[in-house]
Amino acid sequence: MRSLYSLQMVVMINLAVAVLCADKYSRSDFPPGFVFGSGTSAYQVEGAASEDGRTPSIWDTFTHAGYANGATGDIAADHYHKYKEDVKLMAEMGLDAYRFSISWSRLIPNGRGPVNPKGLEFYNNLIDELISHGILPHVTLNNYDLPQALEDEYGGWIDRRIVKDFTGYADVCFREFGDRVSYWTTVNEPNVFAIGGYDQGISPPKHCSPPFGTNCTRGNSSSEPYIAVHNILLAHASAARLYREKYQGKQQGFIGLSIFAIGAVPSTNSTEDIMATQRMMDFYIGWIANPLVFGDYPDTMKKFVGSRMPSFTNHESELVRGSFDFLGVIHYSTCNIRDSPGSLELKQRDFNMDIAASISNYDDFFTASEWPILPWGLQGVLEYLKQAYGNPPIYILENGQRTPRNSTLEDTSRVKYLQAYIGSVLDAIRNGSDTRGYFVWSFLDVFELLDGYESGYGLYYVDLDDPDLKRYPKLSRDWYSHFLNGGSVSPDAVIELQKNFSALSQGHFFQ
Ligand SMILES: *[C@@H]1O[C@H](CO)[C@@H](O)[C@H](O)[C@H]1NC(C)=O
Ligand SMILES: *[C@@H]1O[C@H](CO)[C@@H](O)[C@H](O)[C@H]1NC(C)=O
Ligand SMILES: *[C@@H]1O[C@H](CO)[C@@H](O)[C@H](O)[C@H]1NC(C)=O
Ligand SMILES: *[C@@H]1O[C@H](CO)[C@@H](O)[C@H](O)[C@H]1NC(C)=O
Ligand SMILES: *[C@@H]1O[C@H](CO)[C@@H](O)[C@H](O)[C@H]1NC(C)=O
Ligand SMILES: *[C@@H]1O[C@H](CO)[C@@H](O)[C@H](O)[C@H]1NC(C)=O
């Protein structure tokens, strides 16, 4: 029964390839109340890393050890000092909403215990500034930057004690900001946080074990990714229960968790590749969505990971199941999947080997300087969530185009990407998906997780050579603003916007 159902799911994703995405539309084609915004995250944008009582997070430790090619978020875009200027730019652009995250170690420097008044003041000011400009705050509680104090004390996410400390931190945020913040995402993309941070060792807290990562000094790639996600799910569920019992009645907000939702299509139509693609969906999306919707991990994961897969007690399963008002989707691209059964025979395996599938267009996916434009992939993910998980309310919390970070402001590939992907969201909605909002990653060029300041996703360019870190609008900013203000978008509109953009000599910022 299960495998037949799985096959249907994948065939459905495959069919989405043939669908033509809307290429002429305007925001009035979206349902009333649909929210369009843009986002950043604390460590990636704030800077002021050791100012006003903030203590290091695991991300500071990671960058200061040189693991991001020497780049750090010490200054980043200096949003901590420039938030007023930035909110003004958001308002001028016409954003409905701004997605940001709170730095836990700025608000509660020891991870638990006393609240830092300066941290509290900063987030209160930012939220007030947004609201006075008519911009809705969407807040993520933790975006990779766990307080180093908790990592040092007991190992952070791989210890069960994190559940209590995360809930205590969430309590402070709901209490202090919940009168003005209605949208809460607990933890950002726990699936890739665990794969990067506990399997491959390419992101904080850089845990891994040979032969799976490079220069591993501590960790266990075979077991820790699963333990970390397990504790994140329990921490999320505990915070969600607290919110529902103590705050939601009065504050009327919504709480969710985000998933890095990779698009996946089989490399061939063989049954093996189709089943491998379903495993990919189970390991990436099901890892998080199955517990939230059904109260347990997918059967494929339990079977392939075996005794290394943590299990939920009945009580925990009840706590996790249904512990969300929406799912956050983070999506950039789609990969081709090939069956790779050989790896199951190895005694020692990590997450990637457990899937027993490989990505055949690996270079496109991980090393290309720009994402290939495959909008049907996002439509397929939204359709998949609709069919496999009972059509939950969805916010697309991140989607955007990576380009080399340089002074070229005429970012036509980003405009093409956004136009195609937002069109695919419209197509998914027209076919019944309950998607309620879309956020471009990112509002301005930030410190990027994997390559520091080498690439940028911003609608604004930030000039790092200028001590004042001046912001310059890119063509994509004008495109998004045109759309947000009700303009119709089509290939013709892009040409006109481009003409206007170069006429203003904005094409290159120092002209
Ligand atoms: C691993 O460590 C060596 C020696 O410290 C260093 O030269 C190399 O760049 C490191 N590799 C990575 C991927 O960090
Ligand atoms: C990792 O954990 C697994 C399961 O607990 C264990 O069998 C294995 O020996 C550990 N590997 C390392 C490198 O510690
Ligand atoms: C798989 O079959 C579908 C439907 O017949 C077709 O559209 C698609 O191109 C095929 N995919 C591959 C990779 O052969
Ligand atoms: C900047 O990157 C773009 C690709 O997005 C490239 O076309 C352009 O030539 C680069 N410009 C400079 C000044 O390096
Ligand atoms: C649209 O939704 C229907 C019903 O859920 C589904 O059968 C169909 O495959 C979907 N179409 C696309 C293009 O996703
Ligand atoms: C381009 O500029 C002209 C003249 O200012 C203006 O009327 C037009 O609306 C602009 N086009 C777009 C797509 O913004």
User: Regarding quaternary structure, how should these chains be classified?
Assistant: single chain
* Form type: globular
**Number of domain units:** 1
Q: And the CATH topology?
A: TIM Barrel
How many DSSP E strands? 15
Q: List the ions, cofactors and other small molecules found in this model.
A: 2-acetamido-2-deoxy-beta-D-glucopyranose
Instruction: Give the strand order, joined by hyphens, for the main sheet.
Output: 1-2-3-4-5-7-10-12
- According to CATH, what is the class? Alpha Beta
Low-confidence region ranges: 1-20
Q: Note the total helix count.
A: 19
How is this structure best described in words?
This protein has 511 residues and is an alpha/beta fold. The chain has a single domain (2-510), classed as TIM Barrel (Alpha-Beta Barrel), CATH 3.20.20. It is 44% helix and 14% strand. The chain is built from 19 helices and 15 strands. The protein has helices at residues 2-15, 42-45, 58-64, 79-93, 104-107, 117-132, 148-154, 162-177, 190-200, 224-251, 271-294, 299-305, 314-320, 351-355, 362-366, 375-388, 412-430, 475-484, 491-503, and strands spanning 35-39, 97-101, 136-142, 183-187, 254-260, 263-266, 326-330, 334-339, 357-359, 394-399, 403-404, 435-441, 455-456, 460-462, 471-473. The strands form 4 sheets. It has an 8-stranded parallel beta barrel, surrounded by 5 helices. The chain has a 3-stranded mixed sheet with strand order 6-8-9. α8 packs parallel to α10 (224-251). The chain is globular. Mean pLDDT is 93; it is low at 1-20. One 2-acetamido-2-deoxy-beta-D-glucopyranose binds at residues 403-404, 406-408. Residues 1-18 form the signal peptide. Belongs to the glycosyl hydrolase 1 family. GO terms for molecular function: beta-glucosidase activity.
